[in-house]
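Progress note, sequence design subtask.
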């Protein structure tokens, strides 16, 4: 399936059973709900998908079954987040063998590579696969900042097509355009900066909270695309307290709990993450229940 790198693309949660074993069937059920809500693609095995908590065999099974289940209804993109470049190359090949349409590639995990090492990492992964690549820049979480001029160094790689910009600095959208022109598709990767990023030229949104509110997210994006800023702003103001959860260190637990409250999957995560308890859990539940009570009225499909 041809990737156009546009629209609302959830970073899909990976579902687990009560014993923390992989629950592929529940994940596929959630994917059906996301597709019914109108999403334009799916990112599997991202941060929210708990990539680094899965075994390689589990990743391969989840991707292969997702591709078969989706059956071309939307592009399937796999996260590639590994500790070494060699492992990332193998993960990219495994994902391609599973039939994914594209890859979301991160710098190597844990070790904070310098500029030369970071460029070598992305070039190596690109050489290991023919799948289109979206480069994920998230210096806040992963400690490696890929600056606009660095992206230009990757411009000769035909399969490097897009950038997920998650520096939490919307100025970067303009800086990338000024440096790279229209060479790359730019996607917003920070939930509570999506309106600002779209205004500056982002053509897509890879989001965690879409897992819980797919219809509202897609309607909001439709308003942005059609220039109906006042209506979009009203929804954004309703949505933003939840979107802030995407920038917290416990975003996986938060998003899974919010999604469960909305009827999608469970809040089960895999150790070392643990489900929320006490005041923290109560605070998130109160937040999402207020949002559900006040959710905007959407036009009938």
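Output:
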């Amino acid at each position: 399936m041809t990737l156009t790198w546009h629209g609302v693309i959830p970073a899909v949660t990976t579902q687990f059973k009560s014993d923390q074993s992989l629950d592929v069937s529940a994940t596929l059920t959630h994917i059906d709900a996301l597709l019914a809500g109108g999403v334009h693609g799916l990112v599997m095995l991202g941060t929210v998908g708990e990539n680094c908590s899965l075994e390689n065999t589990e990743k391969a099974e989840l991707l292969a079954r997702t591709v078969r289940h989706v059956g071309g209804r939307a592009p399937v993109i796999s996260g590639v987040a590994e500790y070494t470049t060699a492992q990332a190359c193998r993960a990219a090949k495994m994902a391609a063998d599973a039939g994914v349409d594209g890859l979301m590639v991160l710098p190597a995990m844990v070790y904070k590579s310098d500029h030369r090492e970071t460029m070598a990492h992305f070039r190596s992964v690109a050489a290991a696969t023919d799948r289109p690549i979206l480069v994920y820049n998230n210096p806040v979480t992963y400690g490696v900042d890929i600056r606009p001029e660095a992206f230009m160094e990757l411009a000769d790689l035909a399969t490097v097509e897009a950038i997920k910009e998650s520096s939490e600095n919307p100025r970067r959208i303009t800086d990338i355009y000024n440096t790279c022109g229209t060479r790359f598709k730019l996607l917003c990767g920070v939930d509570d900066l999506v309106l600002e990023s779209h205004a500056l030229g982002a053509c897509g949104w890879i989001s965690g909270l879409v897992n819980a509110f797919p219809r509202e997210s897609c309607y909001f994006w439709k308003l942005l695309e059609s220039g109906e800023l006042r209506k979009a702003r009203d929804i954004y103001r309703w949505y933003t307290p939840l979107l802030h959860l995407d920038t917290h260190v416990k975003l996986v637990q938060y998003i899974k709990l919010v999604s469960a409250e909305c009827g999608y999957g469970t809040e089960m995560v895999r150790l070392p993450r643990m489900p929320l308890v006490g005041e923290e859990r109560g605070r998130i539940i109160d937040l999402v229940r207020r949002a559900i009570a006040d959710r905007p009225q959407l036009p009938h499909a």
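Residues 26 and 205 are 24 Å apart (CA to CA). Work on this subtask will continue into the next period as scheduled.
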